[in-house]
Amino acid sequence: MSIAFAITMAAILATMALALVRASLGPTVFDRILALNMFGTKTVLLISVIGFMTERPDFLDLALLYALMNFIGIVAVMRFTKYGHFADVDAQEGAR
Amino acid sequence: MDLLFDFLSVICLIGGCCFALIGGIGILRLPDFFSRLHGGGITDTLGAGLIMLGLMLQSIKVGLTHEMSASPWLVTVKLLMILLFLFVTSPTGCHALARAALSDGLEPATVDDEEQPTP
């Protein structure tokens, strides 16, 4: 069974490498964000599989945390690329 | 019974690996941002879902053999929570990304575009 986990880990690592290549190549900033999103999802999977492979399922808490953090991070980065700051849009518009 | 669960979970894990790799190749090779979005976002849910399903089958197997202990079922519930969260957030993130790219002025490549070379 641990061979199957090892194969899964290798495939996930290869996918993360491909996503990193796209993140470094990517012509637009959205390509980079997309590759980052994929990298984060694969990180969650990798942590879960490592937890099962080493028979320490406590790692799943870390995976859950990463899944939560990934989504917030993606939305924050997208907002930053759109507005250039993290402040409230209406407040900024009113101040101008 | 153990063998059945092992068999099913290996099939799910290998299938998830294949979908994850296809998504990775798609995000690298597809010619246009919006098609890359397809490769990155849609296979994300299926690959993650199948791998999580394989891990869940493993934890269910452990839970059925150790009837006294509750912690294998807790592992199953945690995996289910991760799976549900990924299923909700990954398409949401991709949708927001596509809308942001469209409003930023990025045009999807169509068949009429001669400047897009076929790979």
What descriptive keywords fit this protein?
heterodimer, A: 96 residues, mainly alpha, 0% strand, B: 119 residues
Verbal overview:
- The complex is a heterodimer of chains A (96) and B (119).
- Chain A has 96 residues and is mainly alpha-helical.
- Chain A has one domain (2-88).
- Chain A has four helices and no strands.
- Chain A has helices at residues 2-25, 29-53, 59-83, 89-95.
- In chain A, helix 1 (2-25) packs antiparallel against helix 2 (29-53).
- Chain A is flat.
- Helices cover 79% and strands 0% of the residues of chain B.
- In chain B, helix 1 packs antiparallel against helix 2 (33-65) and helix 2 packs antiparallel against helix 3.
- Chain B has helices spanning 2-29, 33-65, 71-103.
- Chain B is mainly alpha-helical and 119 residues long.
- Classes of the chains: A mainly alpha (96), B mainly alpha (119).
- At the A-B interface, helix 1, helix 2 and helix 3 of A face helix 1, helix 2 and helix 3 of B.
Topology:
The complex is a heterodimer of chains A (96) and B (119).
Chain A (H helix, E strand, L loop, with lengths): L1 H24 L3 H25 L5 H25 L5 H7 L1
Chain B lengths: L1 H28 L3 H33 L5 H33 L16
Helix pairs in contact in B: 1-2, 2-3
Low-confidence stretches of chain A: none
Number of E strands of chain B? 0
Helix content of chain A: over 70%
Gap between N and C termini of chain B: 48 Å
- Using the alpha-carbon principal axes, give the shape of chain B: elongated
Question: Nutshell version of this structure?
Answer:
Chain A has 96 residues and is an all-alpha fold.
